[in-house]
Write a structure and sequence with these properties.
By secondary structure, the protein is of the alpha/beta class. The chain contains 18 helices and 18 strands. The strands form five sheets. The chain has an eight-stranded parallel barrel with strand order 2-3-4-5-6-7-8-9, surrounded by nine helices. Bound molecules: acetyl coenzyme *A, 3-methyl-2-oxobutanoic acid and magnesium ion. Pathway: Amino-acid biosynthesis; L-leucine biosynthesis; L-leucine from 3-methyl-2-oxobutanoate: step 1/4.
Length: 514
């Protein structure tokens, strides 16, 4: 198949805005339009000029700002709508009026309450009126997928003769199915005598989750424009998503046989802008622009990606505007990914056994925490490295904090190889824990500083606690990390006691600065 240009018509600012709750101000529409221009969208449908004074102003502002994309306004087959659209587009470097009328029996009978002949007349009149205002007129047969074939042939031929250069066939209610929807294009293009004078366009809704599939099928049957939105925003379940269509066309170029002029590296920033303006967040598993679209957590996939990225990726994250793909470390990860991350952090292992030991600790942590961050790995090796025999080691903690009761803690330590237990009350869980430890250690120290840092993100974060103890002018800083902050505190206290016992305040003066 020879390669043709596919026109990308973005309707985020019109059909996208029809999502309940997605209304945009003029300034927001101009901001998004500038991003769409950078993305190299061919046509930006900026609004429905007759809808409100605000939408008129938005279409006008976008038309006056954007130079590299055609700006379009929607208009019913109503004189006032068409005139208002023409007025809003006056300042456009390239303007298009998109006029439409429904052609399905159900819409004509119940909604328009018009006879088919009247609909044809109205369509011809609308296209001619629009052509008097702009050189570029698109005509849509609303609810095309539920319209009668012969009637569509008739109206399409008439509006092309009247001056429409784009014929849009919407699956307005998202009822279409790829094979049938695509074949509708093929049959119409083959049957309408003047079809070659117009570009056929698909406009699909996602009520059955088929909007992108239907659009692609239309392209395979001759459509050379697709109407779509960023993030698939749009009326009800949304429109076909621009990013999915563009990347499907690009990734499967040899099969699709068409090209777009989209600069895909702006896809992710545009998606983020639309999400933040509308307040509609992108779901993590959304194709192309979802946070997980280029993230791998499973060990087998990570191993494959590390060996040869294409084993599990059909496109590059960088090509659509992500910084890079992501190997997320979690409980499904394997040694290959964990080692690769350690390598990137500059941590090497002396032997396979040392790596295996770190990996075992990693899995234990991953059972407690969904995602393991770089800081977790660093904490993991810091703990593991320091394996010289210690005077004290933390073994277990039982804390009780209950409204109306004095907090108390029961601590189990291993002291010089012996298990020792103690309990104490305190003003809080941490205070009770420290008192219990002290009742074992009798260190004679003074607590100079206690600080908690969340070293990783979220409520499941690893907390790192620093405890500064002083005795006879000597100061040590002990640290401890755990997903439970009281356990991290106990570990930090015990670490500080060991440093004192080992005279580490002299050997590790840098720790005094913490
Ligand atoms: C499939 C789509 O996405 S179509 C676009 C949908 N978007 C919108 O509707 C958003 C903007 N709409 C609006 O602001 C308003 O609906 C307006 C300003 C366009 C019209 O408002 P109103 O004049 O109060 O009419 P209302 O919305 O209540 O009803 C629509 C009227 O347009 C008629 N109509 C609907 N589509 C068309 C059309 N393509 N061509 C001509 N007339 C049409 C309806 O039959 C109805 O006519 P009636 O009042 O004689 O019964
Ligand atoms: C106005 C038309 C193109 C539309 O949005 C639809 O039919 O879904
Ligand atoms: Mg629509």
């Amino acid at each position: 198949m020879s390669s043709d240009r596919l026109i990308i018509f973005d309707t985020t600012l019109r059909d996208g805005e029809q999502s309940p709750g997605a209304s945009m101000t003029k300034a927001e529409k101009v901001r998004i339009a500038k991003m769409l221009e950078m993305l190299k969208v061919d046509v930006i449908e900026a609004g429905f000029a007759i809808a409100s004074p605000g939408d008129f102003a938005s279409v006008k502002a976008v038309a006056e700002t954007i130079k590299d994309s055609t700006i379009c306004s929607l208009a019913r087959a109503v004189d006032a709508d068409i005139d208002r659209a023409g007025e809003a587009l006056q300042g456009a470097a390239s303007g298009r009026i998109h006029t439409f009328i429904a052609t399905s029996p159900i819409h004509m009978k119940y909604k328009l309450q018009m006879q088919p002949d009247q609909v044809v007349e109205r369509a011809i009149h609308a296209v001619k009126r629009a052509r008097n205002l702009v050189g570029d007129v698109e005509f849509s047969l609303e609810d095309a997928s539920r319209s009668e074939f012969e009637f569509m042939c008739r109206i399409i031929e008439a509006v092309i003769d009247a001056g429409a250069s784009t014929i849009n066939l919407p699956d307005t209610v998202g009822y279409g199915e790829p094979q049938e929807f695509g074949e509708m294009f093929g049959r119409l293009i083959a049957s309408v005598p003047n079809a070659h004078k117009a570009i056929f366009s698909a406009h699909c809704h996602n009520d059955l989750g088929l909007a992108v599939a239907n659009s692609l099928s239309a392209v395979r049957h001759g459509a050379r424009q697709v109407e779509c939105t960023i993030n698939g925003l749009g009326e009800r379940a949304g429109n076909a998503s621009l990013e999915e269509i563009v990347m499907a066309i690009r990734t499967r170029k040899d099969i699709m046989g068409v090209e777009t002029r989209i600069d895909a590296t702006h896809i992710v920033p545009t998606s983020r802008l639309v999400a933040s303006v509308t307040g509609f967040p992108v779901q993590p598993n959304k194709a192309i622009v979802g946070a997980n679209a280029f993230a791998h957590e499973s060990g087998i996939h990570q191993d494959g990606v590390l060996k040869h990225r294409e084993t599990y990726e059909i496109m590059r994250a960088e090509d659509v505007g992500w910084h890079t793909n992501k190997l997320v470390l979690g409980k499904h990860s394997g040694r290959a990914a964990v080692k690769a991350r350690f390598d990137a952090l500059g941590v090497s292992f002396e032997s396979q056994a040392a790596l295996d030991e770190a990996f075992a600790r990693f899995k234990l942590l991953a059972d407690k925490k969904h995602e393991i961050f770089d800081e977790d790995l660093q904490a993991l090796v810091l703990d593991a490295r320091d394996d010289a025999p210690k005077r004290y080691s933390f073994n277990a903690l039982d804390v009780c904090c209950k409204t109306g009761l004095v907090p108390n803690a029961a601590v189990t330590l291993i002291v010089n190889g012996e298990t020792v237990q103690a309990a104490a009350e305190g003003s809080g869980a941490v205070d009770a824990t420290f008192k219990a430890i002290e009742s074992i250690a009798h260190s004679g120290t003074e607590l100079k500083l206690y600080s908690v840092n969340a070293i990783t993100q979220g409520t499941e974060a690893q907390g790192e606690v620093t405890v500064r103890l002083a005795r006879n002018g000597l100061i040590v800083n002990g640290t401890g990390a755990d997903t439970d902050i009281v356990i991290a505190s106990a570990k930090a206290y015990v670490d500080a006691l060991n440093l004192l016992a080992e005279d580490k305040h002299k050997e590790h003066p840098q720790r005094e600065g913490v």
